[in-house]
Design goal:
The structure is a single chain. This protein has 512 residues and is an alpha/beta fold. The chain has 22 helices and nine strands. The strands form three sheets. Strands 5-9-8-6-7 form a five-stranded parallel beta sheet, sandwiched between helices. The protein is elongated and about 140 Å long. It starts with a helix and ends with a helix.
Length: 512
């Protein structure tokens, strides 16, 4: 009994009262304590339920469970302080808002962009594989033999310099009608079209000529092959130069063979297939632009498209800023369309950019605004000082505007080449005097997707005349928002929509 009573001393007040009553031999006190013990014992089930509920709540809301367990504050009363369901919902919503507020919007945007690109790649891969699977299922043995035979013949044909080249090409063309029945869509350059298809046997429902503004008369072969023809191009980009064409011989051929063709003088090799198409059909102009960021494409927009282009590229997450970066080279001299000091600056900028984390995985292009010699010099410098692996990884390309037509890079470096002259301002390079220069500048600037560096050696204030294309480009690069701000100020003074349209056209054309 003494051992049991000693154990009671480690328990609560009721147990101690029982112990005292036994020690004192007081039956009445013992009965009263025992009655209280019975009441407490009957509450044991409620206590176990309370403990179980608190353990469950502890796993998801430890602070709330501890407050109830210790009966802190409003949790020490006999009734709940409010609706538990509403309190739990409020806490969930509050915690979710706190969690979202702590998340970086830039990280979310980057994740969205990555997932979108991943989804696009997966969708494209799925479409490609399902298309080819269906194609394989419906290809007959004869068609498969013709396709494999044509492929092998063209491989052996190579550059077409061997003795058997004409025979191999003739056999490949003989197989083409069967090949065409198996594969309905063919994509190839125009010179391959002339070699591959027999106009008397091969016809297509639709022929699409891409980059038509730089396609010469050779594209007429593709036009002949189609029942319907879609000509895709831009007359504000570089056109064929007709280098090496005998103009007198061309005129004789026009006089003999094109007597019943509308506008026969346009077939002299100096016009693109896009120019010829425009003589018969009204072009459909695509106004939405997704490639370049807004500050870059706005120069071309005002230069060549009367401000009609709508830039839609989202550049909020762009790691490379600013979009336009002017770099002036002091003390440079031009010799034979080559500016060595400017060339070294361009090469140095490109190599330095390749080492920066902001340019990770970026592709680079270098465009000379004056001849090819400058581009070749820059390319030689890059090959001497840039690892070949890095050069290829960055898809580095150096050339003039025509070389980049139909191409693009993340970052483009423009070399203006011109240097100050001792005889005063340079000869005027006006957009109205020679459309070729205007097209070159339009193409050169619009090749850059994310960032455009303009490296120049002249002083815009003293070396260039008003109305010069070079001056117009430098003014835009140095102050990209100037024209838009001028438009906003002046258009706010207009009294009608007619005045707004006239004023906008005048300002974009360079008039004050």
């Amino acid at each position: 009994l003494q051992a049991v009573l000693s154990d009671c001393s480690t328990h609560g007040g009721v147990a101690m009262e029982l112990l005292d009553a036994v020690r004192q031999g007081n039956p009445k006190a013992y009965a009263s304590a025992f009655s209280r013990l019975e009441v407490t014992w009957r509450k044991r089930v409620d206590l176990e339920r309370r403990t179980q509920f608190l353990e469950t709540l502890q796993r998801v809301a430890p602070t709330w469970a501890e407050a109830i367990r210790a009966r802190k504050g409003v949790h020490g009363k006999g009734q709940p302080p409010g609706n538990p369901s509403e309190a739990w919902l409020w806490r969930q919503l509050n915690d979710e808002l706190d969690r979202r507020a702590a998340v970086s919007l830039e990280d979310l945007q980057q994740s969205v962009n990555q997932l979108s690109l991943h989804l696009q790649r997966l969708t494209a891969a799925l479409v490609e594989r399902r298309a080819w699977a269906n194609q394989i299922r419906r290809t007959t043995l004869e068609q498969r033999q013709a396709l494999n035979g044509w492929k092998e013949l063209m491989r052996r044909y190579g550059k077409g310099t061997g003795r058997r080249a004409p025979r191999l090409l003739a056999e490949a063309r003989r197989l083409m009608p069967v090949c065409q029945s198996a594969v309905p869509v063919w994509i190839m350059p125009l010179n391959r079209v002339a070699e591959t298809f027999d106009p008397t046997k091969n016809r297509f429902d639709v022929v699409i000529i891409d980059e038509a503004s730089q396609s010469d008369m050779l594209a007429l072969i593709a036009v002949y092959l189609g029942k319907q023809v879609v000509v895709v191009g831009d007359n504000e980009q570089v056109s064929p130069l007709a280098v090496g064409i005998d103009s007198q011989r061309t005129q004789q051929l026009i006089d003999v063979y094109l007597t019943d063709i509308p506008n026969p003088q346009l077939y002299d090799g100096q016009n693109s297939i896009y120019d010829l198409a425009r003589t018969s059909y009204e072009p459909v102009c695509l106004l939405e632009h997704f490639r370049c960021v807004t500050p870059i494409i706005q120069f071309c927009n005002h230069l060549s498209y009367n401000g009609r282009i709508k830039p839609l590229r989202d550049s909020s997450d762009l790691p490379r800023r600013p979009a336009l970066a002017p770099i002036r080279v002091s003390g440079a001299v031009e010799h034979g369309k080559v500016n060595e000091k400017e060339a070294f600056v361009v090469a140095s900028l490109l190599i330095a950019a390749a080492e920066q984390p902001e340019y990770k995985d970026a592709t680079f292009g270098v465009i000379s605004l004056k001849g090819d010699q400058q581009a070749r010099l820059i390319d030689e410098i890059l090959h001497r000082h840039m690892p070949t692996v890095e050069y290829q990884k960055r898809r580095v390309r150096c050339g003039n505007s025509a070389d980049f037509q139909g191409d693009e890079r993340d970052v483009v470096f423009l070399s203006m080449v011109d240097a100050p002259s001792e005889n005063g301002p340079l000869r005027l390079l006006a957009e109205g005097g020679n459309q070729m220069f205007k097209k070159r500048y339009n193409v050169a600037v619009s090749r850059a997707r994310d960032q455009l560096w303009v490296v120049y050696s002249v002083n815009p204030d003293t070396d260039l005349k008003e109305g010069d294309l070079r001056l117009r480009l430098l003014k835009h690069v140095l102050n990209p928002d100037a024209l838009d701000r001028e438009l906003e100020v002046n258009l706010s003074k207009a009294e009608s929509e007619f005045e707004r349209q006239v004023m906008a056209r005048l300002i974009r054309a360079g008039y004050n």
